[in-house]
Each structure stands twice: as C-alpha cells, then as structure tokens.
Amino acid sequence: KAPGSVDKPYVQPLIQYQAHVQTYGWLDSMLGGGHGGTEGLAKQMEAIKIQLLNQKYIGEIQYRVHAQTYGWLDWVNGNGIAGTTGQAKRMEAIQIQLTGEMAQKYDVYYRVHVQSYGWLDWARNGEKAGTTGLAKRMECIQIVLMKKGAEAPGSMVRSYISK
C-alpha cells in the first residue's frame, strides 16, 4: 500500500514566481498555481520575477508588463525583473510566453486579480491579462504550466479589459 493518500499525488513544480508588492516589497516565491501578490488589501503589484523549474526541454519563459506611466515595458527572460521597484508604479497587465521546445511541449496559463474587477479569466501563451487605459492595479497573479493541448484551468473569456 502507498504510505499516504494517493488522491493528490506529488507533481514536480515546473514554474516559480515572486511578486513585488506595494509596502511589502518582494513576497515569498510561489510555485505554479499559487497566488503571487495580495487580495483584499488594496496593494498594487509593482514587479514580478518568473522562472522555470525542473526543465526537461530547451527554451525560456519570457514576460512583460504594462506599468503605470510607462505602458508596455520590454520583454525579460526567466528570473528577470519585469516592472519597477522603488517607484510606486502599479502593474496593470502582463503577457507571458514560452520559447523553443518548452513552447512545443507546454502551454502557460495565467490570470490576474485586478482592482474593482477581482479575478479575471485565464490568458494563455502571450495573450494579455489585466487592464490598460483604466488606471486599475494588478494585485495578484496565478500561473500554471500545462501539457500542450490540455484543457484550460478555467474560463478564458475575459482575461483582458482595455479602454
């Protein structure tokens, strides 16, 4: 017999991310599916770092954010800082994508919690998630890697809202 429950077998984490949040600075890193940021505290995410773990295939994770005052910033590669620190500028939206073999083997899904809206739906593979032109802060993010073609973790209808 198994030594414990087999209802939720251990799965090696594939992604890790860390949010920089107003007042708190860098929060603890989250593994795939965790909530990076805060909810219900009216605190803005200002920056994010994302990296792949236990990587079996060649490729990178790339991401960019839409930041208050600056608009869309440049793409950064795994574990680079996207957004700002020490400037009190809110993140408003994000795009995340995989490259190389990783993009052929996995889909990256992500959703964000936004001021006034709460959790928006899931975006995938470079799609925009969040808001632009509405001056709304991103407060929290959830990211998962799924095998290519697997069913989405939830609705994908409304992941991005713009003016």
Q: How would you describe what is shown here?
A:
By secondary structure, the protein is mainly beta. 4% of the residues lie in helices and 44% in strands. It has 1 helix and 16 strands. It has one helix at 100-105; strands at 15-21, 25-26, 30-31, 36-37, 45-52, 61-67, 71-72, 76-77, 82-83, 91-98, 106-114, 118-119, 123-124, 129-132, 138-147, 160-162. Strands 6, 7, 8, 10, 14 and 16 form a 6-stranded mixed β-sheet that branches. The radius of gyration is 16 Å and the shape is globular. The mean pLDDT is 95.
Helical proportion, percent range: under 10%
- Mean pLDDT comes to 95
Measure the end-to-end span: 57 Å
Radius of gyration: 16 Å
Structural class label: mainly beta
Shape descriptor reads globular
Q: How many distinct beta strands?
A: 16
Low confidence ranges: none
Beta-strand percentage range: 35-45%
H-E order: EEEEEEEEEEHEEEEEE
Count helical runs.
1
How can the largest sheet be summarized?
6 strands, mixed
